[in-house]
Each structure stands twice: as C-alpha cells, then as structure tokens.
Amino acid sequence: MWLNMKGKTIFQSVKYRIKASVDVGFFSELPMLPYHHRKELVASANGRTSEELFQLIDNMPHVGDLKFEICTRSDLPEKLFIEMFNLLESNMKSLYERSSWGWDREKKVEEMNDKACRYIVATNEVGSVVGFCHFRFDMERSRTALYCYEIQVAENYRRQGVGSAIIEIIKQLAAKTKILNIFVTVFKFNENSLKFFVKQSFVEDTYSPKKEEHADYYILSKQI
C-alpha cells in the first residue's frame, strides 16, 4: 500500500503538476485581506456550531446508505470516538512506526480530544463508523486554512466514493466560511494517499519540506 512506484515517487511521476504548483492562495490573500481580517475569518469559522457548519452544505454527497455528520469533540458520542480512533490506529499505526515521527498512542488520543477538533463522520445503516475526517480551522503561515489532520476510511468501504465525499464536504465548508486553502500532510511513502490527493487536485505546497531537509512527508494544499 505504501510502496513507491518503480524508481519514482508518485509526485515524481506527475512532476509537471508539481512544477506548476505556485502557491496562488498565498499571493491572492495578501493584497486582498489584511492579516487581522484573515484571523477574524478563522475565528468566525471556529465560532460556528456543528449544526451551523452542517447547514452550510448545499449539496451533501450521497454514497449508498451512508450518513455524514459534522461534530465537535464535545458533541461526538463516545462510542463513535472509540470506533474512529480504532480505525485510525488500524490504518496508520504501522505507517507512523515506519516514519520519523513514530507512533505515540497517548499523543494521538490527546490530539483527537483537543477542543479545536472538528469531525466529519460517515456511518453505515447500523450506525458504525466507516470513515471520518479530523479537521481544524487555523492560520498556516499567514494563510487562512482548513487543515485536514486525518481522512480515514475502513478497508471494506474504500474505492466507493467515501473519501471523495469527505473532500467535497470539506471544499464546501471552506468556501462558505471564506477559508481559501485546504491543507493535508501525507507520508512520502503513502502511494495510495498521494494518488488520491493528486486526483483531488492537491499539489505540493510552497512550504512543504525541501528535498535537502530529508523529511518523510509532503504538505499538500488546494486553493478554494
């Protein structure tokens, strides 16, 4: 799942797309909005309730009988939180262990319990979690940002449009809250995730670690 292509990474194989990936969001925001205004947009987005965010979605994606909800940590049922963390651990533990970051269960639990967390949760007909996104509204190097910390999909629900549906919801939330940039962090050896985000028109961000920094991840971004 996480192997490189023969002699090339995914991004090397689509090099022309990376070369063209000037960070338009960075340059377009600066002349248009003062920094304090950008911070106000982020604060306004963070001040919205889960219900208010849900009401911003004009076109909720449909994937079979799945139900999509938007939650903060405080209004997320504990049963769903446990299922979400178990899904994350099942999908990612071995990959974190392979990375320079390592796997720290307690730190990840703490991260997912932070009051700034927002979640998009996909559940099936019996109410079990089949996918989720952990995201936050923030500032990223002076840019308004909707940062996706996690997009996880259960193995038996992959390639059915769940991940694409989550991205569509994220795009609508960013647009309606006037947050102009979506960010994700992806391990360089995560071939499937890189393919997915390239398909969703994400590009390597200007501030992704440079080659000489020897980082094992990319920062990808998409302008809204």
Polypeptide structure, described:
This protein is α+β, with helices and mostly antiparallel strands. It has a single domain (10-223), classed as Aminopeptidase (3-Layer(aba) Sandwich), CATH 3.40.630.30. 40% of the residues lie in helices and 23% in strands. The protein has 9 helices and 7 strands; from the N terminus they run αααααβααβββαβαββ. A 7-stranded mixed β-sheet has the order 1-2-3-4-5-7-6, sandwiched between helices. Helix 8 (162-176) links the parallel strand 4 and strand 5. The longest helix has 21 residues, at 78-98.
Number of strands: 7
Under the CATH scheme, which class? Alpha Beta
**Named CATH architecture:** 3-Layer(aba) Sandwich
Give the full name of the CATH homologous superfamily.
Gcn5-related N-acetyltransferase (GNAT)
Task: Report the uncertain regions.
Answer: 1-8, 14-27
Helix content: 25-40%
Summed up, the helix count is 9
Question: What is the SS-derived class?
Answer: alpha+beta
The biggest beta sheet reads: 7 strands, mixed
Please indicate the count of domains: 1
Question: What's the helix-strand series?
Answer: HHHHHEHHEEEHEHEE
Shape: globular
What quaternary form is this?
Answer: single chain
Q: Distance N terminus to C terminus? A: 29 Å
Main β-sheet, spatial strand arrangement:
1-2-3-4-5-7-6
- The third-level CATH topology is Aminopeptidase
Strand content: 15-25%
Q: What's the mean pLDDT score?
A: 90
Keywords: Acyltransferase, Cytoplasm, Nucleus, Transferase
Family: Belongs to the acetyltransferase family. NAA40 subfamily.
GO molecular function: histone H2A acetyltransferase activity; histone H4 acetyltransferase activity; protein N-terminal-serine acetyltransferase activity
Subcellular location: Cytoplasm; Nucleus
